[in-house]
Target: NBD/HSP70 family sugar kinase
Amino acid sequence: MLERDQAVGLRNGRGHRGDDLRRLNTAAVMKHVFHHPGTFRSEIAAQLGLSAASVTNITSVLINDNLLEALPSPVGGQGRPRVPLQVDHRSSAVLGIHLGPRTTGVVLMGLDGKERAAVLVPHAGMGPGESIDLVVAAAENLVDTYAGTCTILGTGIATGGIVDREAGIIVDNPSAGWQNVRVMDLLRGRLPSPVILDNNARAAAQSELLYGNGRRTDDFVLMVITADIGSVMVDSGRIRSGFSQTAGQIAHLRVSDEPRECPCGRTGCLAVMASDDAVTRTAIEHGLPARNIDEVLALASAGGAAAIEILEQRNRYVGRAASSLLDIHDPELLVVAGTPAETPAFFGSLIAEVGKYAHAGHGAAGRVVLSSDHVFSLSLFAGATLVDALLADPLGVLGFGEGEGSLS
Ligand SMILES: [Zn+2]
Model:
């Protein structure tokens, strides 16, 4: 399945070409088991076009390094028992960190995307250096507590705004007021490595790819509607970041003729009509006893008609923006993540608006779904970026790819 020429493009692939091929084949095996838990070595060999000996070698390494585990063989049958394999969710974990504007979430996540332990670090009013020191201390605590029970394979970090993933820099996170923060330099050697920095929306798309609707299709657009608003295009399983890492800025799509002013200087932008803060502000203007989005959601779930109408109207605004995305990108699915996913009862108003506004009409409306992640956890999404890196190059993440001949 893997051609030798593909090995040339492998990142950090400084070793012999044979080593590069081995890394690619190891990645293919790891990915296959991740997506087909309970599979057998013979199936892997047949699916990937590898020899039985290669698959045995690769799976032995992955089992030794706690990335895969062998399950008990089914009883009965003739000949040598076939051993089902799955990803080792107990022995391996990653750190996920959501660097928030006021509070940062640090989570220890299994490779199944589930939370093992978590801690919240408040840092309101502090600068980036001081905040990151507190986050590192909390992460070190978590690592010390759990290092004896599992291997921590690395750290995924996500934050809002514009992030240069390759350079490891927060270019502009407006809600935190952080500009040009060299996160990787501040963190070097202080967290389980490798460390990946990405933005919230791309991390959410990564999680959706690995654990959510990505199991149905690798061709979708994800909209994230929370305090922050963004979108991500996933094309053949690849997240498109854009030429200047800023793809998916939908916050200033005009969705209303209301004269509500946006910090960008215009009016009626999605950000000021449909973000969590916008919903809260509308609720307060209507005299509702709510100080934040959770309290608006609580009023709605208690049957409050005014709160319900405010959330339905928000979904209509999101539906108008979704229509534009569907018309521009024509994805197989448009996935809505964030607060609207917490109120599936009001999803109909979003769908109806798409039917009205999208040029593709009702056919497009049928392709709009809510995120399958019931818990919207930005720190788990951050962890998913590291799991993706692990599946792309398990030996690299394990540190085998760092020098000549290290895979021999
Ligand atoms: Zn605007």
